[in-house]
């Protein structure tokens, strides 16, 4: 009798979880679709392996946004594999990575040298990134929007 109750409880719990996960999947799918619909066509999405890497580009992006009023930037951070997968799916326009290992020839790249200001570097609780070095900006050469092309051109002229 106890075994039968245990089996019934387990099956019931599995059915409830199956239903709940299905609802969660639907919610996440709708959310992703709504976010992509609200993202303007003139936006540029840039992902980085480390948030500090975005600080390296901040001055250039700030100057660019003052010169081009219709450009919008969306900045994200994630691990290297997820960034490359997002670039393949065209979820992002550009990626900031430390190494180009495993990057296919379909990607264009800029090798940019950086030097963090002492104030920024000394304020970090741990050494997340060296105070100077180089990073690689990559993009899919076959999928470049107007504003992404403008950002790439500006970065090539200002960082190299």
Strand order of the largest sheet: 2-1-3-5-4
Report the count of strand segments.
Answer: 5
The tally of helices reads 5
The low-confidence runs, each spanning 5 or more residues with pLDDT under 50, are none
Q: Rough shape?
A: elongated
Mean pLDDT: 78
Beta-strand content bin: 15-25%
Query: What order do the helices and strands follow?
Result: HEHEHEEHEH
Main sheet makeup = 5 strands, mixed
The portion of residues assigned to helices is 40-55%
Structural class estimated from helices and strands: alpha/beta
Query: How far from one another are the termini?
Result: 76 Å
The rounded Rg comes to 22 Å
Strands, helices and their partners?
Layout: H1 2-38, E1 43-48, H2 51-67, E2 72-77, H3 80-88, E3 94-97, E4 107-115, H4 118-122, E5 132-140, H5 146-159
Parallel strand pairs: 1-2, 1-3
Antiparallel strand pairs: 3-5, 4-5
Structural commentary:
It is a single chain. The chain is α/β, with parallel strands linked by helices and 160 residues long. The protein has helices spanning 2-38, 51-67, 80-88, 118-122, 146-159, and strands spanning 43-48, 72-77, 94-97, 107-115, 132-140. The chain has a five-stranded mixed beta sheet, sandwiched between helices. 17% of the residues are buried. The model has no long low-confidence stretch (mean pLDDT 78).
What is the compact description of this entry?
By secondary structure, this protein is α/β, with parallel strands linked by helices.
């Amino acid at each position: 009798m106890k075994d039968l109750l245990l089996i019934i409880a387990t099956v019931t719990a599995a059915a409830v979880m199956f239903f709940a996960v299905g609802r969660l999947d639907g919610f996440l799918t709708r959310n992703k679709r709504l976010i992509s619909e609200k993202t303007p066509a003139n936006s540029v999405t840039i992902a980085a392996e480390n948030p500090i890497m975005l600080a390296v580009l901040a001055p250039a992006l700030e100057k660019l946004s003052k010169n081009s009023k219709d450009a919008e930037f969306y900045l994200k951070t994630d691990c290297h594999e997820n960034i490359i997968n997002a670039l393949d799916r065209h979820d992002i326009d550009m990626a900031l990575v430390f190494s180009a290992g495993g990057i296919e020839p379909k990607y264009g790249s800029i090798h940019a040298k950086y030097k963090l200001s002492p104030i920024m570097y000394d304020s970090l609780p741990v050494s997340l990134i060296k105070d100077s070095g180089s990073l690689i900006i990559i993009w899919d050469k076959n999928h470049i929007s107007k504003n992404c092309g403008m950002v790439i051109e500006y970065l090539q002229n200002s960082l190299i």
